[in-house]
Amino acid sequence: MKRANPSLLPHFTDPEKDAFLNGFAAFGLCPKIFYLWRPVLRDPDDDMLVELAVAGAATYIVTSNTGDFQGADSFGFTVITPQYFYRNHHPL
């Protein structure tokens, strides 16, 4: 979210992004990962996110680079964009 193109979520200011990410992180857990699912994707840095999603029993990976995660949904989570997540899962 902080690295995303500013035009993706123009209504969020930097302090609002920080507040959201800090609140989001407050509910996080630190599962152990064992690198069991690598390699899955073209980019090894993205494989790290798949491993974490599997270890954490994630429902979604939210990323602007959904094309980089082709095949990752076979692990039981869905890869969606921040815009889709915001439109479909925002409480307002």
Description:
This protein has 92 residues and is mainly alpha-helical. It folds into two domains: 1-30, no CATH class; 31-89, no CATH class. The chain has helices at 14-26, 44-55, 82-89, and strands spanning 60-62, 78-80. The protein has a two-stranded parallel ribbon.
Which keywords apply here?
92 residues, mainly alpha, two-stranded parallel sheet, 3 helices
Itemize the secondary structure elements and their pairings.
Layout: H1 14-26, H2 44-55, E1 60-62, E2 78-80, H3 82-89
Parallel strand pairs: 1-2
Concise summary:
The protein contains three helices and two strands, in the order ααββα. The protein is mainly alpha-helical and 92 residues long.
Q: Give, in spatial order, the strands making up the sheet with the most strands.
A: 1-2
Query: How many helical elements?
Result: 3
Order of helices and strands: HHEEH
Poorly predicted sequence stretches spanning 5 or more consecutive residues: none
Summarize the main sheet: 2 strands, parallel
- How many whole angstroms does the radius of gyration measure? 14 Å
Helix percent reads: 25-40%
